[in-house]
Amino acid sequence: MTRRFDDKVMVVTGAAQGIGRLVAERAAAEGARVLIVDRSPARKDVVAAIRGARGVAEAISVNLETWAGCEKAMQKAVDLWGRIDILVNNVGGTIWAKPFEHYEPRQIDAEVRRSLFPTLYSCRAAIEHMLPRESGVIVNVSSIATRGLNRVPYAAAKGGVNAITASLAWEVAERGIRVVATAPGGTEAPPRIVPRNPNAEEEQREDWYRTIVDQTIQSSFMKRYGTLDEQAGPILFLASDDASYITGVTLPVGGGDLG
Length: 259
Ligand SMILES: NC(=O)c1ccc[n+]([C@@H]2O[C@H](COP(=O)([O-])OP(=O)(O)OC[C@H]3O[C@@H](n4cnc5c(N)ncnc54)[C@H](O)[C@@H]3O)[C@@H](O)[C@H]2O)c1
What we know:
Rossmann fold, alpha/beta, binds nicotinamide-adenine-dinucleotide, seven-stranded parallel beta sheet
């Protein structure tokens, strides 16, 4: 086992399950002190699992769709451990899956609030702590769905995440901060404790979701979904000093699908 994150302070958003949880657990196993930011009570299970494996973790519940929530989360890491070395902006995910003409305006707003604003706000809140130290890494989690079917608002939000990655990286590169992203493809995961959309309503929703699955497999050279480990690995590589000369780019992690 490598120890790429010994003594590093890492904040992972949306880390109560899925990709974020595995990033937090693997980083802690490599020595990071990890702050789990998630509004689901399942965040406590992640802290318990990390501590059970002799790692260091704390958790905070905030609403990451608000500036106040993001600012509070970043401040919590600084209060606990004095700094933020690495921020992984993982929270996000499409809430609805359907052709664009079926989205209501309120649903478009909700998608952008879920998949763009948490990253935009958290980047802004984190650099306040990173810039004075001239050190830090931000890894954003985007999606290859920036070119995909049945999720236009989510695609737009993740396109925004790619833009934040490129533009913020340029602004802060000479001040010691790297900003990078991965764009996951379809990822197999255990059933979600927190569903993306507990009240999905339309009767065509299974067909519309099936279109996403079929398109995702079809667009991948490998014709399969990836695993959680295949997503966590590239995120941790980009977060580590192994990637010290990489900034401003979004790495597609979709079996050949470039998004
Ligand atoms: N899973 C995939 O197939 C896939 C594919 C491409 C991209 N991605 C991206 O990877 C990232 C992680 O996806 P996932 O499927 O592992 O996540 P997920 O949907 O399984 O979990 C998201 C977590 O975020 C938390 N959360 C959601 N909104 C929140 C808020 N406002 N405040 C605080 N916590 C909140 C939830 O409680 C949950 O624990 C997302 O950005 C997603 O867009 C995932």
